[in-house]
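Subject: Sanity check before I submit

Could someone independently write out the structure tokens for this chain? I want to compare against mine line by line before I put it in a report. The sequence has 416 residues.
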Amino acid sequence: MGGRPPGLSRDPTRRMMVNRDYLPAVGLGITQIMGYGTLMYAYAVLLPPMAKDLGLSLSQVFGVLSAGLLFGGMVSPLSGHLTDRFGGRWVMVGGSVVAGLALVAMSQVTTWQQLLVTILVAEGAGMFVLYNVAFAAVARLDLSVPAQRSISIITLFGGVASTIFWPLTLTLFNAHGWQTTWVVLGLAYLIVSLPIHVAVLRGPERDAQSAKRAQTSDWPELQGAARKRGMFWMVISFIFSGYLMGAVMTLWVTNVQDLGHSAAMAALAGAVIGPFKTVGRFFEMMITRNMHPLGTYLLALSLQFGGFAVLLSVGFTVPGILVAAAIYGMGDGIKTIVRGTLPLALFGHKGYGARLGWIASASMAVNATAPFVFAWLTQVYGGWWSFAVMALCVVVAFLAYLKIEDPRRAPAYDPA
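---
Independent answer below. Compare away.
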């Protein structure tokens, strides 16, 4: 009588080990909050006043940032290759040091050339500490926790980066100016992220046999020609489904105002997106424990398109714009998880880091044009049509998704 609850291990040592196996994902989740908060979201608050002090226009200073993002995309394959070869621990430790020092150096720039060099270094270092390397690093560790679940946990934390750092950065700037704010952000990143990367990524890594065991029998890899076709269509789908991110971040307020809302309401609706990314990721963790990432990706695309459908049909109302932002945010949050889990499921652990790096490089090279393209659409045709083309991008991503072959349906596959 009064037996042990189902699923609870009889061995307390084993339970303790399983609990410890969640620490890498939790630790990397914390560093993703710091990384995206300081290396991505802080720019939206600090670059405009920096532009004024440096004698640059807003378009010029964000052009410098675009150059930094493009450089980061070029560096991404290298960081992935190094993670595959040496593991994520020292790759992320080195990236942490360079990123933190680059953020501190941002406080000392006095010319656009110095700003360019500093942002290039910061964004290059970011490719050694942000999602792609974090995904590859945790997938290499020999843990009892499946890699897909660890990736979900990492993104669950990262989703609140904008919610924390936009108001935090603005508060620091209003109190101390942009120079001191960059120093505080850089030192905070070093103090928090560096010891976590040292501590949580230590321990044994998967060898060929343990990596093979980690791939569940229900998730076979693509083989032969289907493997090349799958990679091509997956990258095309990722590019189109991700093309929206830069446009939504930069043009959301302008486009929503064009639908008839005030700037305050547009900003409020935009603020809904970030928290609902986290809601979407938590939802994914609850329902997709045994779902193939192809199914998870379909869910993400459906939610993204659903958000735009609500926006285009009833976005001129206050409830409509808030619901649209929430649905889109959930889809975009889940899509971030799929960026890590789908390549792992379709192509396996071997070369996983480099594969993520090349995918990120291709995506960032194309996606850097999104703010300019959609700004032109908004200027010429209006915000509704700009949002309509964003929805069309999701449709194209879905059509490319349909071309990805499901390895579980291969003739040679027998789940029994």
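---
OP: Matches mine. For the report I'm noting this point. DSSP finds 16 helices and no strands in the chain.
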